[in-house]
Amino acid sequence: MPSPALQLTDxxxxxxxxxxxxxxxxxxxLEVGRDELVALVGPSGSGKTTLLSVAGxxxxxxxxxxxxxxxxxxxxxxxxxxxxxxxxxxFVFQAVNLVPFLTARExxxxxxxxxxxxxxxxxxxxxxxxxxxxxxxxxxxQPGELSGGERQRVAxxxxxxxxxxxxxxxxxxxxxxxxxxEQVMELIGREMRSRGVGGIFVTHDTRMTHHADRxxxxxxxxxKA
Length: 225
Ligand SMILES: Nc1ncnc2c1ncn2[C@@H]1O[C@H](COP(=O)(O)OP(=O)(O)O)[C@@H](O)[C@H]1O
Ligand SMILES: [Mg+2]
Description:
Rossmann fold; 27% strand; four-stranded antiparallel sheet; binds adenosine-5'-diphosphate; six-stranded mixed sheet; 6 helices; binds magnesium ion; alpha/beta
């Protein structure tokens, strides 16, 4: 049996805030299959972004185990963790954070460059992804020249650029109107399924959960069974 895309076991994450300790995640146990798309819903402040950050090795857990594929994140040094993230994980954030002075195509190629494989294959892949995302005619445009929906599609392309084994979406449609949000979610579902990649998307909008194979709810840092 291949290992799942993601496995969290009894993960706890706390932050220090002045003298106080904030428990953002408590006993989080979760498995995401290699071809599974999971929706994560919960009120503001319930720990959704923290869960994605820990799952994506942006933050280390305070306690518990985080496994992405066959790799135990806790066993990696900081440097190894950064390299691992670059190769295995794709992120799409709520606020689209594209590089403003680079074109759509260059925003994808940055990923290849950071991983040290900016070659002909990478350029072909960037063009192919942008084409699939309906941006074939926008590859030479900078983010400021694109609409909100187009920018979010570039961000999706960037997240898929490194052929990740796990893709994490943090409220990918919250800045879009309902119809555009629906289109972007549709695209995310299609791209993820055609690639057989594991993923989690956070959403505030329960109308979006039908794009997922499964929906998890989080309240006060605890996943509901
Ligand atoms: N860097 C931080 N320092 C201190 N507390 C934080 C930090 N990040 C998040 N928190 C707190 O942790 C809890 C969970 O936050 P977060 O994961 O961002 O929730 P969500 O994404 O569901 O809105 C909240 O109470 C939040 O205030
Ligand atoms: Mg959040």
